[in-house]
Write a structure and sequence with these properties.
476 residues, Beta-lactamase, 2 domains, 6-stranded antiparallel beta sheet, 13 helices
């Protein structure tokens, strides 16, 4: 585009204009440099007041924060800063005094661990961070509560350097076969936290006027029960006849525990539908599949074989973790199962690590989902849309055979049985299922985290299950 008059300029005039443009360019550089130096001198406070750049937004989201705010340098420059930035906004009881120590791996200095002791916790959590480029990022986490069963920690920490894993428990250090990691000074931590969760406000979508009164009533009951819980809980219900939904905290991220086996099951049945697997096909159990927790396959030697059908049965009726990991590997890995979950409409469901009996500090460092996602996947199964219609019927039958999960059923009449899958870890109590009984069949997902007792989690699920049943069955 020509910014100058169309008349041809003389050589002298062109030269004067070039000099003037050169002077302007130099002036702009000087002004820009001064602005940059002033911005640096003003520190993070000034930066936070400015509109974040696209780079800042990406970094903030990658670090678990709001994309509207820039990431402070202290959240990426040190292992303890990265770990604290990730954990403090999501885990109750975490403050600057919770960070007890940081250790740098001698085997791989791009990895470090940070020891947390949250207020009210009897055991520490370790957060494992990795240096990616010029910044530290939190990658893994676990609660150090099993010194007598340290082998269990290997499952979620497979990529973490061996020295950081072997020295989690000082009492077991005598058995370590690698050098001890180097303890580092804990520097300044970023401002983050305290933990903040979505308020337990009722949510409803597509509820017709004829159903609104009863839905609002049960939502009020659910909100009151969740507010009285000593942890964080959420619920979502999908009406299978009316195709509408309602809940409390439906989009909060929760640890899935064994409810993550739901999309694994769907992934297997899709492979069966496609002829890529068969029920009688033998699958070799490998060392990498091992995990503690539920199920008897953990006591079997690597190299033994099980059929696909038996692995499905063990995973869904005995909640066998080894069976779950073997099936994930067989269908194509965690990425494939995550794609299956997304295809079912579960956008916030993720297998982040192998299924095990260990729990991370926060859902963002663990397998995770939301009540809405779980209910959405269940509805696809109930409607015969998750896989072939016949396979969906098989899945429902399989969930009816569940021998371990009774929390959801405890809130139902004796003659009503939910097709469900529960899961629990330390302070995590979940149960999700399909209830095809009563006047209005439905799916329901109840999830919780940071609850103080197993009895409290069981009671929460029973009470919410009963309230939903009474409403959906026409009892209220």
């Amino acid at each position: 585009m020509n910014l100058w008059p169309q008349k041809k300029l003389s050589f002298a005039r062109r030269r004067r204009r070039r000099r003037w443009l050169g002077f302007l360019a130099v002036l702009l550089v000087l002004v820009g440099g001064a602005v940059y130096l002033m911005g640096r001198a003003s520190g993070d406070t000034q930066t936070a007041q400015q509109k974040p750049s696209p780079v800042h937004r990406v970094l903030r989201m990658a670090s678990g924060g709001s994309p509207e705010e820039p990431v402070p340098a202290s959240a990426t420059e040190t292992p303890e800063g990265a770990a604290y930035w990730k954990v403090a906004p999501e885990m109750p009881g975490v403050g600057p005094g919770s960070v007890e120590a940081a250790y740098r791996s001698k085997l791989d200095p791009s990895w470090a661990s940070v020891r947390f002791k949250p207020e009210g916790e009897s055991k520490p959590f370790f957060v494992f961070v990795e240096r990616v480029g010029d910044r530290w990022e939190a990658k893994k986490s676990m609660r150090a509560d099993e010194p007598d069963y340290a082998k269990n920690e290997v499952v979620p920490l497979t990529e973490v350097p061996k020295d950081l894993v072997q020295y989690i428990y000082p009492e077991n250090a005598f058995a370590a076969d690698v050098p001890e990691p180097e303890q580092e000074k804990v520097d300044d931590l970023p401002e983050a936290g305290p933990a903040n969760f979505a308020p337990p406000e009722p949510v409803s979508e597509g509820v017709p006027d004829s159903e609104r009164e009863r839905v609002e009533k049960v939502l009020g009951e659910a909100k009151g029960r969740i507010e009285g819980y000593d942890g964080v809980a959420g619920v979502y219900v999908g009406d299978l006849e009316g195709n509408f939904g309602y809940g409390v905290r439906p989009d909060e991220q929760f640890f899935t525990a064994s409810t993550i086996k739901l999309p694994i099951m769907v992934a297997v049945y899709r492979k069966l539908d496609a002829g890529e697997l068969s029920f009688s096909q033998m699958i070799e159990i490998k060392e990498e599949d091992w995990a503690a927790g539920a199920g008897w396959l953990q006591w079997e030697r690597a190299g033994t074989k099980q059929t696909v059908g038996d692995l499905l049965l063990l995973m869904m009726t005995q909640s066998d973790n080894v069976a779950a990991n073997a099936l994930v590997r067989t269908v194509g890995g965690a990425d494939h199962v995550n794609e299956v979950a997304r295809s079912l409409g579960a956008e916030n469901t993720l297998i982040y690590q192998k299924v095990s009996s260990e729990r991370a500090a926060i859902p963002q460092l663990d397998n995770r989902s939301t009540p809405r996602d779980m209910a959405t996947m269940l509805q696809k199964i109930a409607d015969g849309e998750a896989a072939s219609e016949k396979s969906c019927e098989y899945m429902i039958d399989l969930m009816h055979q569940d021998e371990l999960d009774w929390w959801l059923d405890a809130g139902l009449p004796d003659d009503v049985d939910a097709a469900n899958k529960a899961g629990w870890l330390y302070e995590v109590y979940d149960d999700v299922g399909i209830v095809k009984a009563g006047d209005r069949p439905y799916v329901v997902a109840i999830m919780s985290k940071y609850g103080q007792s197993l009895d409290g989690g069981e009671s929460l699920i029973k009470d919410l299950s009963n309230a939903v049943w009474e409403s959906q069955s026409g009892g209220s």
